[in-house]
Amino acid sequence: MKKQEQNTKETVSMLVYGYLVILFAGLPLYMQNKLVMIGNAKYLFFRNTTLVLGAFVVLAVLWQGIRGERKTKRMWKKTDVFMLLYLVSAIFSYGISPCREDVLLGYPGWYMGLVTQGLLVGIYFAVSRYYDGSRSIWWIAGITAGIVTFIGLLNRLDIDVLGTFRGMENGEWNRTQLLSTIGNNNWYAGYISVTAGISLAAAYMGKRQGRVLGMLGSFLFLASAITSNSTTAIMAACGLSLLLFLVSLRQRSRLLRALEILMLLPLSIFMVRLFLLLHLTGLVIAGDVEKRLFFTTVWYIVFGAEAVLYLILRIRERQQQKDFLESGKIYRIVVVAGAVMICSGVLLGCLLGGIVGNEMVSEAADGRLALWKVTLLTYGKEGALYKFFGTGPGSYYHMLYQWGSDAMDWINKGLLDNNIYSNAHNEWLTLLVEQGFFGVTAYIGIFITTLTDLRKKISQSPECLAVFLGLTGYLICSLFTFQHVLSTPFVFALLGMAEGVLCKVILIKS
Known about the structure:
Layout (H helix, E strand, L loop, with lengths): L1 H28 L8 H29 L11 H18 L4 H4 L10 H17 L5 H21 L16 H5 E2 L3 E2 H21 L3 H18 L4 H17 L4 H11 L1 H14 L10 H7 L3 H21 L10 H27 L2 H6 L4 H13 L3 H6 L6 H8 L2 H8 L13 H29 L6 H17 L9 H22 L1
Antiparallel strand pairs: 1-2
């Protein structure tokens, strides 16, 4: 009987592992007709594979119950509860939605409706219960991310290795906004920011060939982020670099590793700049912000400071002098100073937001501030029931353009561009409209509980650090982008994998 139980459990674990391979390797590389309708193709691939593999997992679990096999008792964790509440919020908001026909699948091209939300939660519970902590999936995911990122970097350097841009001119929208096997640069920013944690963790904590590949992957991520024509990707690259620096401030040897990685950011900028100055490439960049980024002298100062600090620490390490970082005093000072700077920046932003006029708001942040303001105006006019529970996942377009009038008023006044928005370009504001305060609270709880558990273990396991960095990268992007099948499923899988890697660390420690 024990052997049969073990066989059933191994079968379910193999199915979950196979799905993770499809998710982390198949989905990013899958292209049906190059970049034509790539969003639809990626969604159908994700939905169909998830439904098929999910059905097999459910059948295997049911078969285990029918046979009366004993299950390993697993205490419900806080993340499980918040995940379940998130699903409840999606279902309930669908039930009261004024546009149920739009909410079931979601807006065409994005498809983040009720069906997708259910699949995402299902991924979490399946992976959290049956992922066995195998390291091979990290190799598969990391190598795939490296391939996708390398192709994206080549595309921005005007090297079309897949022939996806044949017939397009450099200035047209598709040529500047699409890249690699992913498509839209917002999708691409989310994807590379989530998967960057794998290469950064390998470079930071890896050994031998793992560390070499990690350094290469980190360089590709940083170089591709700054050339991706996405300010979001640039912010994620800088944010993850600063986070890695902060994590390393408790041990000198770790700080040395972190500085080696951090120096790759200015070096990647110098590389792009060299390509431009020597006319080795027709760099495909549309945004003025990104162009100015390459030619600011600040990066010389950053690189010089990193190099000097690295040399000083390396000399002290070789001479085996006292490590002042071990006391934690420097770490606490940096954390407090950083918190003060962030709070000051937020306060200053709020003050400026109250002073500047609507015209300046409409131009700021590539028009996002205007969209955010209209979103809040629309949400503020909803009834109490909708404010708390939302109008259903995927209902943003309906609420903004068909239910509310503020968006059309702003468009007529020239304060908001005439694009079609199916989301607020801010995941939290979109969620506030679609699943209300209840859904936002549950979603926040998912990330807070997982990151809190991971924070205690990131110094003990590269997998824990990879998940921690991947989730943080996604959260940075979520401030300026939206849920989509090119990054959000990976996040829910990572949330589930966090359970496996945390249990593995506990077992090794015991």
